[in-house]
Specification:
The chain is mainly alpha-helical. The chain is built from ten helices and five strands. Strands 1-2-5 form a three-stranded antiparallel beta sheet. The longest helix is centred in the last third of the chain and has 17 residues. The radius of gyration is 33 Å and the shape is extended.
């Protein structure tokens, strides 16, 4: 035996029969040093290779990459899901966008912002997409809108017209009431018939200009803490509440894949338990005659 007796001692051949031989070189006359703590754990089955640390890329098993373990007490990363804000009907913000003209604007530019809010809240357009809509993009007979571009910031306070985010060119199906609102907007604020909304020099409005008008609208509605992008979430949650499936919501919002839609709004779809309760309630009402027509007490 080499070294003092104990866990880290190494035995030569013939020293103690029945004990494990730890001579790695298989040489009876070799003198070996005590094992390292990690090697001791692997020899006695107290640990496994790779435990507690990330494996080298060449040692990772295909299809099962090493995952970093979260330290105890370390907070988990928050989920990226849409959390509905406190209920505040968009109609309140929609009406506030058409209350009075802006300061120094005799034509009442604030009145034209009503249609902008309508496109974001009831068609699900992003800010840049709504700012880049042309009058010709709206088909008033078929009640559709073609989203083909968006406004992006450029150096020096200018704007650039680019393709929609993630290639989300799409055709949006408009509600009849929204079509009527856009028709009145075009008749009152689009004499040239070019851009649906204009900023400086007759060009589409800058994102800073839209942000200023939105903050003014919130102040008129006595609201705060609501982003313009929340109207897009409101539109998506309304489609889900009405029974639209994942693919329908994905196409309406212009998401690149249904995975993006599910990662953001999956918690808003009714669960199997909700559908079971609803079906059972309808079955109970139909079987027991508790529909809307039989709600009133019957007279004998």
């Amino acid at each position: 035996m080499v070294g003092p007796p104990g866990v880290g001692a190494r035995y030569r051949d013939g020293d103690e029969p029945g004990r494990p031989v730890h001579d790695l070189c298989r040489c009876p006359d070799a003198v070996a040093a005590p094992l390292a703590p990690r090697a001791l754990g692997q020899e006695h089955g107290l640990s496994r290779p790779g435990a507690g640390h990330r494996a080298h890329p060449d040692q990772q098993r295909p299809g099962r990459p090493a995952r970093r373990r979260r330290r105890p007490g370390h907070p988990a990363r928050p989920e990226r899901r849409y959390r509905p804000p406190p209920p505040a009907p968009p109609g309140r913000r929609h009406d506030a966008a058409d209350t009075r003209p802006g300061r120094g604007d005799p034509r009442g530019r604030r009145r034209s912002f009503r249609a902008f809010v309508g496109l974001c809240g009831f068609a699900g357009l992003r800010l840049g997409e709504a700012a880049a809509v042309r009058v010709g993009d709206v088909d008033f007979l078929r009640r559709t809108l073609t989203g083909a571009r968006q406004v992006q910031r450029a150096p020096g306070g200018a704007i650039e017209l680019r393709a929609p985010k993630y290639g989300s060119e799409r055709q949006v199906y408009l509600a009849p009431s929204l079509v009527d609102l856009l028709a009145r907007h075009v008749a009152a604020h689009c004499p040239q018939g070019s851009w649906l909304f204009t900023g400086d020099a007759g060009q589409p409005p800058h994102q800073n200009t839209v942000g200023h008008r939105w903050r003014t609208t919130l102040a008129a509605a006595d609201l705060s803490g609501v982003k313009l992008h929340d109207l897009r979430h409101f539109y998506a949650s309304g489609l889900i509440a009405s029974g639209c499936d994942v693919v329908t919501v994905q196409r309406a919002l212009g998401h690149a894949s249904a995975t993006t839609t599910l990662n953001t709004y999956s918690h808003l779809w009714p669960t199997a338990e909700d559908r079971t309760r609803r079906a059972a309630e309808e079955l109970f009402a139909d079987s027991c005659g508790l529909g809307a027509d039989s709600a009133a007490p019957t007279s004998r």
